Amino acid sequence: PLQEENAAVVNEHWKFGSDSTQAMIVDLIRTQPSSGLWVSGQLVSWAVSYSYGAIGMLFTLPSHRGKRYARHVVQHLAGRV
């Protein structure tokens, strides 16, 4: 699962991310299931779930696309929602 310190990266890459959304992302990470994939200690793919069960904010860094990382993240998270 994601940790609070990952909220800045999630917010930076979320298409709706802004200064005012980071606190919301921290709250989601604290209270809802989330999933991330790290390569050599770097978070490269992630998703969070909302209180109503939807999965969102799915993102994989461009340099790591095409490796099915998002698929693994979603499969892991779907098993926790």
Give the rounded overall mean pLDDT: 96
Number of distinct beta strands: 3
Strand order of the largest sheet: 1-2-3
Calculate Rg over CA atoms. 12 Å
Percent helix, as a range, is: 25-40%
Strand content: 15-25%
What kind of sheet is the major sheet?
3 strands, antiparallel
Shape, per Cα inertia axes? globular
Please write the string of helix (H) and strand (E) elements.
HHEEEH
Euclidean distance between termini CA atoms: 12 Å
**How many DSSP H or I helices?**
3
Helix/strand/pairing category: alpha+beta
Which runs of at least 5 residues are low in confidence (pLDDT < 50)? none
In short:
The chain has 81 residues and is of the alpha+beta class. The chain has three helices and three strands, in the order H-H-E-E-E-H.
Notes on the structure:
The structure is a single chain. This protein has 81 residues and is of the alpha+beta class. Helices cover 33% and strands 25% of the residues. It has helices at residues 7-13, 22-31, 69-78; strands at residues 34-39, 42-49, 55-60. The chain has a 3-stranded antiparallel sheet, with helices on both faces. Helix 1 (7-13) crosses helix 2 (22-31). The protein starts with 6 loop residues before the first helix and ends with a helix.
